[in-house]
Design goal:
Length: 170
């Protein structure tokens, strides 16, 4: 369990992206959700599951992804540490970037803040990823990117057509 700092008393609305493309993908994601709850992360909403091709190598196993709307009084730094610990506990190993993995947990948005420290918020590539935008839209149709100042509908419409056609809601 990550110890909370005394300055961490403000509750923030946070969007987390969870994904898996190794093993029992759905089970891996459910275990990650359970671990978040065990660590005092309150889940407010859960998107549907979405399946996408792996990137950058579409020959790798397909990914299953969801987005969670959660609240926590952890700061971004401690939340990312918790997420990395959960990934490791579910079998994630240090490998090449973007290689297949049992579990991936990303902080997509943290209280609509713009942070550049050990974690960059909002997630620097989230606005180009169908597996983030579609489930996020499902949870919050009015979400606006804190830096780009574009609403989620505009971000989805800016995706390449192949990215819009290739995502499948499960």
């Amino acid at each position: 369990m990550i110890k909370q700092d005394t300055s961490e008393n403000q509750v923030n609305i946070i969007y987390l992206g969870l994904g898996s493309n190794l093993g029992n993908r759905k089970n891996n994601i459910e275990k990650a959700k359970f671990s978040l709850i065990e660590n005092n992360i309150k889940i407010l909403q859960v998107s549907s599951y979405y399946e996408t091709l792996s990137w950058p190598n579409s020959n790798d196993p397909k990914f299953l992804n969801i987005v969670l709307r959660v609240v926590s009084n952890l700061n971004p730094s401690n939340l990312i540490k918790l997420c990395k610990n959960i990934e490791k506990s579910l079998g994630r190993k240090k490998t090449l970037r973007n290689s297949p993995r049992e579990c991936d947990i990303d902080i997509i948005d943290f209280g609509n803040s713009n942070v550049k420290s050990e974690v960059i918020l909002p997630h620097p590539r989230m606005h180009t990823r169908n597996f983030v935008l579609f489930p996020l839209f499902e949870l919050n149709r009015n979400w606006t990117h804190p830096i780009l100042k574009q609403n989620i509908k505009k971000l989805i419409n800016a995706l390449p057509k192949k990215d819009i056609r290739s995502i499948k809601q499960i």
